[in-house]
Amino acid sequence: MDRMVETGEARQTVPEEAGRTDALIVIPAYNEAATIGSVVLEALTVAEEVLVVDDGSTDATAELAAAAGARVLRHDTNRGKGMAIENAFQYARENNWEYLVLVDGDWQHRPKEADALLTACAEGPANIVIGSRYLDGNRGETALYRRVGQRVLDGITEANTGYSVTDSQSGFRAFDRTAIETVAVTDAGFGVESQMLESASERSLTVTEVPISVNYDVPDPNTSNPVRHGFSVAVRLLRTGGIRYPRFFLGAPGAVLAAVGFVGVWWTVTAEATWTLSLVIGLLLSTLLCLCGVVLTTMSVRTTRAGRH
């Protein structure tokens, strides 16, 4: 069974500028030895305490983070980003932090910009402030396939939560005390960013964004496949949406598929044309669309009824 180990508090390096005392900056990290020291040092200029949750790294991430001045919580094994964030929220609750800032440890984000997130959080009325890479229209700096994927995830997230944001997958975000106390972190994987917004929506919290810069030229970039990552997050969002809003996520697409399939079957059967292989394939595809639509519509009705009981 995994256990969480806390590494000592002694700081070997302390920045000249002291950070604010009401905010905790948390860096979930896994094999970030190339950048973690620099990220911690800059974060300490914004907040007096920086917590690195080392998720079972096999390199010197934990040691370098502690040497730079961070408090370190270590997982014996890699348990996923969501579990690291859950530990961060638990730590913030237990130690009565007024604000919590999450920032990635790969140097794509500049920790000094956490000050803008904290300012927006303190001024209110937002309970959660997301650092957006795209708020100022800087999508051109990101690869096209990433921009398209991000738009899709933003749209599904908005349908799930009601929050219209430009960077739903940003790992750079600040939480006030209300959010720290009420947001439930239940997704162990990289879908945690959207899952936190779903939890915030269920608790009627307010979310806003502030612009941040982004650096994709990092020393040791994330090696996870962005397409596979985006697809897994989208599937999770659609599954959650199907449970929360079955008529929208299941019923509406089901009705469209059934209608398109029915029209295709009707046209194929009634067409005065010689039966060819293409016509047969068209009939089979139309029938499949019709059946899929009926299944989705039926699932929508059953899910809606189950939710009423």
From TrEMBL:
Pfam families: Glycos_transf_2 (PF00535). The chain crosses the membrane at residues 248-269, 275-299. SUPFAM superfamilies: Nucleotide-diphospho-sugar transferases. Residues 25-182 form the Glycosyltransferase 2-like domain. Keywords: Membrane, Transmembrane, Transmembrane helix. PANTHER family: SLR5056 PROTEIN (PTHR48090:SF6), UNDECAPRENYL-PHOSPHATE 4-DEOXY-4-FORMAMIDO-L-ARABINOSE TRANSFERASE-RELATED (PTHR48090). This is Glycosyltransferase family 2 protein.
